[in-house]
Amino acid sequence: MFAPEKDVQSYIHFGLYALQHRGQESAGISISDGSDIKTKKKMGLVSEVFQGDTLENLSGYNAIGHVRYSTEGDSSVTNAQPLTITCKLGKISIVHNGNLKNAKGLRKRLEEEGTIFQTTTDSEILAHLLAKSSYNNIIDGLKEVASMMKGGYTFLLMTTDRLIAFRDAHGFRPLSLGKVDGGYVLSSETCAFDTIGAEYVRDISPGEMVVIDKQGITSTTLLEPKDPSLCIFEYIYFARPDSNLIGKNVHLVRKELGKELAKESNITADIVSGVPDSSLSAASGVAEALNLPYEMGLIKNRYIGRTFIKPNQEMRELGVQVKLNPVNATVFGKRIILVDDSIVRGTTITNIIKTLRDAGAKEVHILISSPPVKFPCYYGIDTSSCGELIASKLNVEEIRTEIGADSLQFLSIQGMVRAVERVPGLNENTGYCLACFNGEYPVTEED
């Protein structure tokens, strides 16, 4: 956020609360008053990192914040963001969402040139590329090095007196621009604008770079745009239901996914329920389309993080065991259609089915509002190998047996795309990355 007439620390702080669902491992803020950049980051939730008088030492008109979900590099305070460096371009603080597909090659090259890395994240690669650029100002430096980075990403960078944002050429990860009185704000999701009272202006375009300073806002093409490929998993799981991506409301998209899933299914049941929270919208769509009662079958402990984005399998399994509890009066003796957004590793759904059976459910039929996740993601989701994806090893019937469901059905790829496209948005020509479902990767090593 950049607002010369304001102290923006509280805006950034509350904005991070709105984005907490995107990462629970660490949180951080960098802020500048025009003379220096101060950074505070720590492991934990936003509420744990910024306690008591922590924010009193952070004041300024230019700031960036980050909540981390590790997709590259381990979960440690060393890898927490923002990443702040001092180099020939001055003091720079960086936050990053996504993954660099060619991170290993870039890191190897930089290390051979004598670079010493302080973290194991691919976010640090941009810092070293900038430090080694042939230019002495950050804008020209970015123009020189941005094309070296392949993958799906959004970056925010701040100097003492400027805020810079850019997206990759395909636009895998979302980034929106908002306006507040006397300044501008950028966010991965529009729900953060609502939280701090900002007005949505537009989405940052694929390949676009925006620079904000006291003279105003300027936009330039940093990378030549390629086929638009917004990650469709943002709609399915990552984004909050009250956010809009390319003008499409996430809740409405998920409800359409549920309706499409109902059309493809042929199940007799008594009630429909959803796995809290990201599946509730799709479950309401299924119930509406099948003309079945929508019931609360599971209660979520609000103080446990999202299991899919916890950093290792053991922690995911423990998280599921304490995260959800059945509503016995609702599920006892019932044939249940349980809707979930996806099956990635199979951890969550297996434990949930056992929980419902222990609570007296007569039958548990699983409907998944996305296709089977069969292929790794290299653009910002922590599924980097086929070995951890249950659908890459087992067919649907084998998965059904493995998780212990009475029946199992996934939404088709065609049905998923139809559902997303049914919801009106700002740009109906937008394409989506479906690589985790069909193995067709928009970015290749040759790009």
UniProtKB/TrEMBL annotation:
The keyword Glycosyltransferase applies. Transmembrane segments: none annotated. Pathway: Purine metabolism; IMP biosynthesis via de novo pathway; N(1)-(5-phospho-D-ribosyl)glycinamide from 5-phospho-alpha-D-ribose 1-diphosphate: step 1/2. The lineage of its organism: Bacteria, Bacillati, Bacillota, Clostridia, Natranaerobiales. It holds the Pfam family Pribosyltran. HAMAP family: PurF. It comes from Natranaerobius trueperi. Its EC number is 2.4.2.14. Binds 1 Mg(2+) ion per subunit. Catalyzes the formation of phosphoribosylamine from phosphoribosylpyrophosphate (PRPP) and glutamine. It catalyses: 5-phospho-beta-D-ribosylamine + L-glutamate + diphosphate = 5-phospho-alpha-D-ribose 1-diphosphate + L-glutamine + H2O. SUPFAM superfamilies: N-terminal nucleophile aminohydrolases (Ntn hydrolases), PRTase-like. Keywords: 4Fe-4S, Glutamine amidotransferase, Glycosyltransferase, Iron, Iron-sulfur, Magnesium, Metal-binding, Purine biosynthesis, Transferase. InterPro entries: GATase_2_dom, Ntn_hydrolases_N, PRTase-like, PRTase_dom, PurF, PurF_N. Mg(2+) binds at residues 278, 340-341. This is Amidophosphoribosyltransferase. The gene is purF. The keyword Hydrolase does not apply.
